[in-house]
Amino acid sequence: MIARAGVSIAITIFFAAVLYTTNGCSGEDFSTAPNIPDHAGSLAGIVTNAVTNQPISGATVTVGSGQNALVSTTGANGRYLVVLIPVGSARVTVTANGYRQFSTTVTIAETANTLDVALQPN
Questions:
Q1: Tally of CB atoms within 10 A around 15
Q2: What is the pLDDT of residues 94-109, one digit of tens each?
């Protein structure tokens, strides 16, 4: 029984290796991978209700626009983190259901940057 189990494991590993190499998992073409900026920073903060000062869960924080936009969603504690933001000027937009949209332009340094946002209820 032990010999059969060993053979079964060897066959399973062989077929997994064959599937791995034949399904395109080996030698991937990463030429279409997103560009990672040479100089980048991050943006973190908390999104709160401007009236109650309570954190807003599920708010969307967007840095930039179009295909190059970086997006994060706040957690239950209202916190968010956006990484790999190119250094320089960046437009930040924060939205949440039941709240007015907030937009501002920030300067991203090659460090950890902070932006806390208090959204006004509709």
A1: 10
A2: 999 999 999 999 999 9
